[in-house]
Amino acid sequence: MSSKPKTGVPHQVRTAAEPRQNRLYTVRLTHIDELNPTVRLLQLTIPPNVQSLENDTQNGDEDKTPQPLTFLPGQWLDVHIPTIPNAGGFSITSTPADANVLPIPEQPPKEHFDSVAEPGLPPVHSAGRPPYVELAVQKALSNPASAWLWKPKDEILGTELGIRVGGSFVWPPPGIDLNDVRNVGLIAGGVGINPLISILSHLNNNESNTVLPNPTNIQILYSTRLPKPTPSSTEATLDQILFLTRLRQITQSQCQSHRLRIGLDLFITDLPKDSPLRTAPPVDISIHPRRISREDLGVAVRGADASVKPEETVCYLCGPPEMTDEFVGVLRGLLGDGQERILFEKWW
């Protein structure tokens, strides 16, 4: 979700029928990276006392125990910003595990951090990696929330914001037995990749609550445009496509573990005819200079040899409204009675 109000309808009104948590959490904007000229990656740090590993109810005072912030991959946040009357809506791009405190066995001396710190990374909290949620915010000056989050970094870093979790576009798919799932389609248009990167990153985590019961194919169809201005080198161009670097890293890691079999198809709708990406594409991505077609959707949900059964597939789709409506119709035709296996969300 991008909260890009083409119709002028506030995010909270448009999503009024969606489920929301009751609690509003206070977080702090602690880190900003510009992934490309139009998308910023924001890290919102959760107060450690809220997510503390030591929180418990052994003293019987359950009502006063802070309830940790929890969410499912694919959900979004209402983001309440000081001085802006309407909350913005932005998909979470991190995983639920990132919202947990990650302790370190012992605190190395300060000199150690000075010597190994990587440029652009937030400092390490004394209790370990601080709990956080991550958002990717597209620059849209007509959207008050987005415009505020695109102010100069030194004007907004450190600001406290209010967030509330919401949304029904989630992993695991509601009402679906994961024991039956052997194929997952992830289909994105533009910033529709945001909730899908949370889902894929979650599945990539090697933890008991993320490992699927069966060897699983994951087919990613990602339609986008080149960043403007387009960098001169091929790799620099690919690095500026939203979350493509992260997608490639996950795909490569699974090539080694073989837990997930991931196919990554990138559809660049404005790729010039003389682009090196046409003549010498990287080996780990299939690059197509066109839109996603019905045939591509068929391969994603049924396999290249059409051997995947509809009841073995779940499909997640997020993109602009026209694309989403069109593709949902195609997918329903492909999966027949399995419409509950098609989960979709539109970004605005």
SSE diagram, text form:
Layout (H helix, E strand, L loop, with lengths): L10 H4 L10 E12 L2 E7 L2 H4 L24 E5 L7 E4 L18 H7 L15 E7 L5 H6 L3 H4 L3 E7 L16 E7 L3 H12 L11 E9 L9 H6 L4 H14 L2 E9 L7 H4 L6 E3 L5 H9 L10 E7 L1 H15 L6 E5 L2
Parallel strand pairs: 7-8, 7-11, 8-9, 9-10, 11-12
Antiparallel strand pairs: 1-2, 1-6, 2-5, 3-4, 3-6
Helix pairs in contact: 6-8, 10-11
Describe this structure in words.
The chain is α/β, with parallel strands linked by helices and 348 residues long. It has 2 domains: 11-166, Elongation Factor Tu (Ef-tu), domain 3 (Beta Barrel); 178-346, Rossmann fold, CATH 3.40.50.80. The protein contains 11 helices and 12 strands. The chain has helices at 11-14, 48-51, 110-116, 144-149, 153-156, 193-204, 234-239, 244-257, 276-279, 294-302, 321-335; strands at residues 25-36, 39-45, 76-80, 88-91, 132-138, 160-166, 183-189, 216-224, 260-268, 286-288, 313-319, 342-346. The strands form 2 sheets. It has a 6-stranded antiparallel beta sheet with strand order 4-3-6-1-2-5. A 6-stranded parallel beta sheet has the order 10-9-8-7-11-12, sandwiched between helices.
